[in-house]
């Protein structure tokens, strides 16, 4: 499965970069994220509760950052295990481009593979949930960095847990990769 997207964020590229590398901001932005720990300068571990259709699972995942070109881009790759629900692995390329003094365009391309019960759900359903999760992530992310009028106007996402594909956070995020956890 592949997914790509672009989001305008009302903050400087440096602020967006710092937030994408801040475990507290990411944990608050990723739907269903119960724990996120920075293991090293280039690695995170996460625990995410997710639901897709009738399948609910606790995913434990690891994400690595590579090809880092601060504050412009990086590649996120990783994998997550959800017990009997299955597993997911993937990667995402995240790029930040200044669109103005206080606006950054974040674009991502991500690819993920699912196995186990998750694979039986169907790619159309999974892609729909991943896109919704990406939208929720960016809405939450803008609220977390709290810059500009768009941040104040962005709606808060409720407590309903959504499925995040682990790795690449997910897309990643990650956002691309945080979307893939």
Care to describe what's here?
This protein has 181 residues and is α+β, with helices and mostly antiparallel strands. 24% of the residues lie in helices and 43% in strands. The protein is built from four helices and seven strands; from the N terminus they run βααββββββαα. Helix 2 crosses helix 3 (123-145). Mean pLDDT is 77; it is low at 147-181.
List key phrases describing it.
181 residues, alpha+beta, Alpha-D-Glucose-1,6-Bisphosphate, Chain A, domain 4, 7-stranded antiparallel β-sheet, 4 helices, disordered C terminus
Number of strands: 7
| Strand portion | 35-45%
Number of domains: 1
**Strands of the biggest beta sheet: in what spatial order?**
1-7-6-5-4-3-2
The description of the largest β-sheet is: 7 strands, antiparallel
- Helical fraction equals 10-25%
**What is the C-level CATH assignment?**
Alpha Beta
Indicate the radius of gyration in whole angstroms.
Answer: 15 Å
Give the averaged pLDDT, no decimals: 77
Sum up the overall morphology in one term: globular
Which runs of at least 5 residues are low in confidence (pLDDT < 50)?
147-181
Structural category is alpha+beta
Count of helical stretches: 4
Query: What is the ordering of alpha helices and beta strands?
Result: EHHEEEEEEHH
What is the H level of CATH, i.e. the homologous superfamily?
Answer: START domain
CATH topology type: Alpha-D-Glucose-1,6-Bisphosphate, Chain A, domain 4
Second rung of CATH, namely the architecture: 2-Layer Sandwich
How many angstroms separate the termini? 13 Å
